[in-house]
């Protein structure tokens, strides 16, 4: 009986250790995902060779679905292009009311 209790105790300790290792592994994966997302957001927000951000470019061509995706993924909506235009100003210049409303929401 005592041997069975000791074995059960060892088994519980092993399970606890395994769960702790799984938790640590999950935290590492989450940290990597967050680092990757932050890296991608930084890359996205950087200006391109023509000094347009992806967001100002998509606003310029009235691609509202792409604009929504970029903003969802953390794109800086206040980042200006080479002319000093923000995505909102570009949408206003293009007369895209739907895009203007979205950017203001």
TrEMBL record:
UniProt ANK repeat ranges: 83-105
Residue ranges of coiled coil: 2-37
InterPro entries: Ankyrin_rpt, Ankyrin_rpt-contain_sf
Repeat keyword on record: yes
Keywords: ANK repeat, Coiled coil, Repeat
PANTHER family, per database record: ANKYRIN REPEAT DOMAIN-CONTAINING PROTEIN 39-RELATED
Protein name: Uncharacterized protein
Record organism: Neocallimastix californiae
């Amino acid at each position: 009986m005592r041997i069975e209790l000791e074995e059960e105790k060892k088994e519980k300790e092993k399970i606890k250790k395994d769960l702790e290792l799984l938790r640590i592994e999950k935290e590492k994966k989450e940290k990597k995902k967050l680092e990757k997302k932050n890296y991608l957001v930084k890359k996205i927000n950087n200006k391109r060779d023509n000094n347009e951000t992806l967001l100002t470019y998509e606003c310029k061509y009235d691609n509202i679905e792409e604009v929504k995706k970029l903003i969802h993924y953390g794109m800086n909506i206040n980042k200006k292009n080479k002319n000093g235009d923000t995505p909102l100003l570009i949408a206003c210049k293009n007369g895209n009311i739907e895009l203007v409303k979205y950017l203001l929401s």
